[in-house]
Amino acid sequence: MKPRLVVLTGAGISAESGLRTFRDTDGLWEGYDVYEVASPQGWQKNPALVQDFYNGRRQDVKAALPNAAHTGLAKLEEKYDVRIITQNIDDLHERGGSTRVLHLHGEIFKMRSVDNEELIYDIHDDIKMGDLAEDGGQLRPHIVWFGEAVPMIEKAAREVWEADVFVVVGTSLQVYPAASLLQYVKPGVPVYIIDRKIPEVAVADNLHLIEKPATEGVLELLSIL
């Protein structure tokens, strides 16, 4: 059996593919106040603005390409049972070749009914106001907004608990509940943190810090593992 390698990724891994993150710009995301476009309150106030915002992000993701960090993590599947847990809503891990990807915060190429979060559909073009799910509910992006529950977090915690090696790439570890996943790493399991600015972490033993951008850091990780 291959050892299980669990990877938590954040915006830093997609930034090198040209996808900007709202954390880089003081709470503005592509010029928008993040709560206007990524909260239930923003949706209640101006759903058309929210749809337009995510329609734009969908086009950005379509135009982006996986980088060496995405393909490098996929390459690890030769030797490890790799499980990716990502905070990102793009599909660059999948396009980079990873076969097991859990999206904590939803997926830009999916949409769902406002009335039933189980009614999920694929979408590669724009979602418009008036586009309805089969239950009659308006379709919205399948994204976890600020203030909404993160339905995949328990599954993610189980993955981390079963890890033989745990890797964190390109996340500030500031967004909860994702940041709490470190607490589920079993004692003695090696933890690698790759970021251009290493965040503060409470793990003490078996901690390996690689202070580099995601592409360079994953390359170093490949040479170690």
TrEMBL record:
<dbReference type="InterPro" id="IPR026590">
    <property type="entry name" value="Ssirtuin_cat_dom"/>
</dbReference>
<comment type="function">
    <text>NAD-dependent lysine deacetylase and desuccinylase that specifically removes acetyl and succinyl groups on target proteins. Modulates the activities of several proteins which are inactive in their acylated form.</text>
</comment>
<comment type="similarity">
    <text>Belongs to the sirtuin family. Class III subfamily.</text>
</comment>
<dbReference type="GO" id="GO:0005737">
    <property type="term" value="C:cytoplasm"/>
</dbReference>
<feature type="active site" description="Proton acceptor">
    <location>
        <position position="105"/>
    </location>
</feature>
<feature type="binding site">
    <location>
        <position position="57"/>
    </location>
    <ligand>
        <name>substrate</name>
    </ligand>
</feature>
<feature type="binding site">
    <location>
        <begin position="10"/>
        <end position="29"/>
    </location>
    <ligand>
        <name>NAD(+)</name>
    </ligand>
</feature>
<dbReference type="GO" id="GO:0017136">
    <property type="term" value="F:histone deacetylase activity, NAD-dependent"/>
</dbReference>
<dbReference type="InterPro" id="IPR026591">
    <property type="entry name" value="Sirtuin_cat_small_dom_sf"/>
</dbReference>
<dbReference type="InterPro" id="IPR029035">
    <property type="entry name" value="DHS-like_NAD/FAD-binding_dom"/>
</dbReference>
<dbReference type="GO" id="GO:0036055">
    <property type="term" value="F:protein-succinyllysine desuccinylase activity"/>
</dbReference>
<keyword id="KW-0963">Cytoplasm</keyword>
<keyword id="KW-0808">Transferase</keyword>
<feature type="binding site">
    <location>
        <begin position="170"/>
        <end position="172"/>
    </location>
    <ligand>
        <name>NAD(+)</name>
    </ligand>
</feature>
<dbReference type="InterPro" id="IPR050134">
    <property type="entry name" value="NAD-dep_sirtuin_deacylases"/>
</dbReference>
<dbReference type="InterPro" id="IPR027546">
    <property type="entry name" value="Sirtuin_class_III"/>
</dbReference>
<keyword id="KW-0520">NAD</keyword>
<dbReference type="GO" id="GO:0036054">
    <property type="term" value="F:protein-malonyllysine demalonylase activity"/>
</dbReference>
<dbReference type="GO" id="GO:0070403">
    <property type="term" value="F:NAD+ binding"/>
</dbReference>
<dbReference type="Pfam" id="PF02146">
    <property type="entry name" value="SIR2"/>
</dbReference>
<feature type="binding site">
    <location>
        <position position="214"/>
    </location>
    <ligand>
        <name>NAD(+)</name>
    </ligand>
</feature>
<feature type="domain" description="Deacetylase sirtuin-type">
    <location>
        <begin position="1"/>
        <end position="225"/>
    </location>
</feature>
<dbReference type="InterPro" id="IPR003000">
    <property type="entry name" value="Sirtuin"/>
</dbReference>
<feature type="binding site">
    <location>
        <begin position="87"/>
        <end position="90"/>
    </location>
    <ligand>
        <name>NAD(+)</name>
    </ligand>
</feature>
<protein>
    <recommendedName>
        <fullName>NAD-dependent protein deacylase</fullName>
        <ecNumber>2.3.1.286</ecNumber>
    </recommendedName>
</protein>
<feature type="binding site">
    <location>
        <position position="54"/>
    </location>
    <ligand>
        <name>substrate</name>
    </ligand>
</feature>
